[in-house]
Amino acid sequence: MTIDLPMPYCSTCQCFHHATAECINVANLITARPSTSDEEDYESPKYSDRGRILFYIHVTPNEPPEFEVYAHDADTSCMWLEEGVGCDYALKYYFDIDLELSGYYVVDGVHGRYWRGDGYTTDDNEEWYFDFIRRASPEEIQGECLYEQH
Fold this sequence. Notes:
The radius of gyration is 26 Å and the shape is flat. Helices cover 24% and strands 27% of the residues. It is built from five helices and seven strands.
């Protein structure tokens, strides 16, 4: 049995119509593969790569402090911290931050350790540490971002 189709089958875009210049251009866009040179050169940061987190802390007497994260180094272990529990959660619950003054601060030297569980008796686990906390510079506060360390 044969079926008479009203239009020919276009193998370019796999539809039933006459192939047009637009159809061919769309098909070229779909099949064109972007350059992967950037993807091939990318290496994920290690948990041991020390990073920084810029945050604001609002301290109110007799209440837990409120943290607002403004920036973190995305090419360090902070990327994994943000992808996991989040930098704001880490500031509240992982790091022992006891500051008495509200303001902008930078947690410096953020790094972690990760253990893969066996899937049966032990779970995956991670621990996070930092070296020190410092006041943010005026440039960091004004731009709400971290600048290259010199």
